[in-house]
Automatic annotation (TrEMBL):
<dbReference type="GO" id="GO:0035438">
    <property type="term" value="F:cyclic-di-GMP binding"/>
</dbReference>
<protein>
    <recommendedName>
        <fullName>PilZ domain-containing protein</fullName>
    </recommendedName>
</protein>
<feature type="domain" description="PilZ">
    <location>
        <begin position="7"/>
        <end position="100"/>
    </location>
</feature>
<dbReference type="Pfam" id="PF07238">
    <property type="entry name" value="PilZ"/>
</dbReference>
<dbReference type="InterPro" id="IPR009875">
    <property type="entry name" value="PilZ_domain"/>
</dbReference>
Amino acid sequence: METAKEHRRYPRSPREESLSLTLLPAGATSVDTEERLFLTTHDISLAGICVELPAPIRPDTDVELWIAMLHQRGTYHLYGTVAWCAAPEGQLLAGIALDLERGDGRLWASQFNDHGYYPD
């Protein structure tokens, strides 16, 4: 039986990084900063970020992210879509599929090696 991990396009790196996430209304490019959530990542990959949530977010919701990476790798302004939201083992998580063509998506992607691994 295949697992979800075998279906992933890029490997995940467990990382705890701080980020702000804003839910985007349909068709919007930005929203009021008062609606930002301040979250922690669970893991990252070239094409996605898994975040810990205080409350569920509906899949297919577009989001705007600001993530400050440790080790002086910079701050990235990213866009994506919530791909899933679930509570495995009681911890509420959401997977965000990144749109690497918007914001700092290409700069984000350049931080990963040819095999999709983020250097520690």
